[in-house]
Write a structure and sequence with these properties.
This protein is mainly α. The chain has eleven helices and no strands.
Length: about 210
């Protein structure tokens, strides 16, 4: 009798597996976690939106925490963005590199791949590996900006400053523009924003 039930359960999961992909579940879970937060979303909430059942989610992800960590790995990544920033920033002088960094940050920020609201609100729910990966990628962005300031100081283009703090300031201004768009759908004129941030930053480095 038990074997029969297990067999039926396995068959049910297999049928659901064919009908609902893990990608579909991840997309729905990502949206729900982003909108309401980890603590306010249940497995059944995800099931209702994704058109699946709890056994299917457990089949793919093992638990709610496993689902959240999978969402993080799937959605919260800026690796390609980092590579693009590094490539564009390496072109020309340190000053031109900063101009390129600002332009690339504002025009190429991966809104669909990196959800700062999800990351900031539910950082405590991340497993250690996911948290370390995300922080490493964010540190790489900071490192690119820091290196540009250091190069400018070394060449005499900028006054002597703490390059790391200057990078914090620059990225903070850029994030303000980007996050306003992501969180509040407030569209800014990116050319105006780019010009303002560039002028402000270079004046601070004189």
């Amino acid at each position: 009798m038990n074997k029969s039930r297990q067999s039926q359960g396995g068959s049910s999961v297999q049928t659901q597996k064919e009908r609902v992909s893990s990608g579909r579940i991840l997309e729905v879970a990502s949206r729900l976690f982003r909108q309401k937060g980890y603590s306010n979303i249940s497995i059944r909430d995800v099931c209702r939106q994704a058109g699946t059942t709890p056994p299917m989610i457990y089949y793919y992800f093992g638990s709610k925490k496993g689902l959240f960590n999978a969402v993080v790995s799937h959605k919260l990544t800026v690796k390609e963005f980092v590579n693009k920033l590094r490539e564009r920033a390496s072109a020309g002088s340190p000053r031109q590199g900063i101009v390129n960094f600002i332009e690339t940050y504002l025009t190429s920020f991966p809104e669909g791949a990196f959800d700062p609201g999800l990351y900031m609100r539910d950082t405590g729910q991340l497993d250690r590996e996911s948290a370390e990966r995300i922080n490493k990628e964010l540190d790489e962005i900071h490192s690119v900006a820091t290196s540009l300031v250091e190069a400018g100081v070394k060449k005499g283009n900028f006054r002597t400053v703490d390059a790391s703090e200057a990078a914090d300031c620059l990225i903070g201004m850029l994030n303000h523009v980007v996050f306003q768009k992501i969180h509040f759908s407030r569209s800014s004129d990116l050319e105006v924003a780019q010009s303002f941030i560039s002028d402000f930053f270079f004046k601070a480095l004189r």
